[in-house]
Every structure is written in C-alpha cells, then in structure tokens.
Amino acid sequence: MIEVEQLTKVYRVPIREPGIVGSVTSLWRREYKEVRAVDAIDFSVAAGERVGFLGPNGAGKTTTLKMLTGLLHPSAGSCRVAGWKPQDRQRDFLRTITLVMGQKQQLIWDLPAIETFALNKALFDIPSKQYAETLSELTKLLSLQEFLHQPVRNLSLGQRMRCELAAALLHRPKVLFLDEPTIGMDVEVQAIVRQFIIEYNQRYEATIMLTSHDMADVARMVRRVILIDRGVVRYDGSLEGLSREFGSGRTLVVRGNGPVLDRLGFSLMEDDKRRLTISPDRVNEVLGDILRELPQVELTVVDPPLDDVLRRAFGEKRE
Ligand code: ADP
Ligand code: MG
After folding, report:
1. What is the mean pLDDT of the chain?
2. Which ligand is nearest to the CA of 75?
3. Could you read off the pLDDT of 38-48 as tens digits, one per residue?
4. 10 Cα to the center of ligand 2, angstroms
5. Do 293 and 159 have their domain in common?
6. CA of 55 to the centre of ligand 2 (A)
7. Where are the alpha helices (DSSP H) in the chain?
8. Which of 15, 107, 184, 273 is deepest in the core (most CB within 10 A)?
9. C-beta separation of 310 from 215 below 8 A
10. Residues 155-204: pLDDT tens digits?
11. How many domains would you assign to the chain?
C-alpha cells in the first residue's frame, strides 16, 4: 500500500550572519546550507497494517509524511501510496488518504465542528447516505455528541482533536497518516484516541502510519515500528525485536531512599519508586551494593521500559 524507495528530502536554508549587518548583507549575498532531513529511506507497508513511525524531534518524520501525502516533492528517490504518486495530488488519491497533524487544525474556529464536516462532505463529494452513516459512526466512536454543535473555540483541546479526527475521516480514507496524533492531550483523551485508531483500522481495514516521539504511546497502538533518526531508518520490525536489539539491559526498581541510590544514578519515578537500567552482567554487583546499605529495601528486576530502549537506540546523550 505504501512503497518508499531511497526517498530523500534536502532542504536548502539560507545562512544568515548574526546581527543587523548579517541581515543586510544577506540581502545580496545569500548563502545556503543543505539540511538532509530524510536520507534515502526504504520501507513498505502492506494494506491494513498499523505502523508506528518513531524518532526524536527533528528526525524527519513530518517531512516523510509530507512527501507521502504530496505536500512536498522528494529531492530524490520515490514513493507510492495506493498505487498513486503522491506529488501529483490527483483527486482520487486525495480521496484515498488523509493527513492529521496534531498541531495543525482544519476546523473552522468560530463555527461548530458539524459545519466543517458539511464543508468536507461537499469538498469530497461524499454521497449523503454514506455521509450520514459515517458521521453517526464517528460520533459514536469518538463520543462527539455533546459538543458537535458548539463553536470549536469553546472546546477543550481533547474535544477539538476528536473533532479534527472525525473531519479528517469523513471521506473514509483507506490510508491514514497521523502526525503526533496524541500530542498535548491529557491521558484520558489519549486513551480514547488510541482506541479509536485501532478500531478504525480494524473496521475499515485501513492502512495507518502514525508518528510519535513517545515510545510508550506508540507501543499501545502498533506492533510494528520504523525507527528514524537524523533522516536514516535505524530499525524496522516488531516492537519485541526492538527491545531485543537495543534493550539488552535490566531495570532495577526500588522503593526506598538512601545515598547509595543517588551514587548509583537511580532516577525518581512517580509513586516514590526509583529505577536504574544497567547491563545484565552488573545486576549482581549492583544488588549487592544496594542491599549492603539498605538491607530491608523492596527491590525488583524487570525488563527495561520502552522509553529506555528508545533512548539507547538513539544514543544515550540525546533525549
Ligand atoms: P520530525 O517531524 O521528526 O520532528 P522534521 O521532518 O520536522 O522532523 O524535520 C527534519 C529536519 O528537517 C529537521 O532538522 C528540521 O529542522 C528540518 N526542517 C523541517 N522542515 C524544514 C523546512 N521547511 N525548511 C528547512 N528545514 C526544515
Ligand atoms: Mg514532526
């Protein structure tokens, strides 16, 4: 359904010398530098798959989705979505896909969401019967009933995002590109949106590619992840394989306090537990250190949490 070959995007950005002199000289002497946002990536996604596209900020996720939806032309390489060349932006292609960006909105601020929906019905030529059906399904799945008729500006962020999703899905696209769909939401709304994404995928056998910089978030929605870092694909496979490949450590979880924990570099978790991920061959030594000073402490050894795995995958220094 999605085929990507050696896909590359290089941005040309003007270099400005700092200060006022810089901004004047740059008027006639423009110099550019090249940013390789996406660097010859390959992957393919089968129809009906749910794939997480994961990477730290600036990794190239949004740029890739923009190429896959035809908003940006590739600098090199190629991509195909449902048989179409996205950059041609053909009408039937646009009817097949949707792009939802967590930080951008298409709903009209001063009008109720239902008005934007009606606009999209016209825009996509959705037959009335199908529109009514889809709207009622989406309203149920996303619990939109109480606020569908209120001006968008009066909605909470979570309510607005649910309406955004509905607006983006009224034409029942077969391929969904979701860019950080749960960003900035509180946990309950995140859970609703995640559940909804899974249901939409199953009900319509839609292909879904969603980005996130949050491993735990993605882990709840997909089984396959593609990891991108600095424009390069670092991993493509199952979530379990990811832990195997990058997460060869063990995590000690301790409830308690003591200087030994600070010395070893334990970090504080919620509910006054502390944790530390170390390589397996150090477990006995570290347990010994702790128990010598804190013989009564409550201690468990578990697999490392996914965000630790991710940090390891992207290098320790970078968050
Ligand atoms: P992500 O979505 O993973 O955070 P982006 O695709 O937004 O990453 O950005 C990838 C890289 O490309 C970053 O270094 C970013 O600064 C750069 N970039 C993104 N958009 C532009 C643009 N319009 N012009 C120049 N550079 C850009
Ligand atoms: Mg982005």
Report:
1. 88
2. 1
3. 999 999 999 99
4. 16
5. no
6. 9
7. 19-28, 61-68, 91-96, 113-123, 128-141, 157-169, 187-204, 215-219, 239-246, 259-264, 283-293, 306-313
8. 107
9. yes
10. 988 888 899 999 999 999 999 999 988 887 788 888 888 999 999 999 99
11. 2
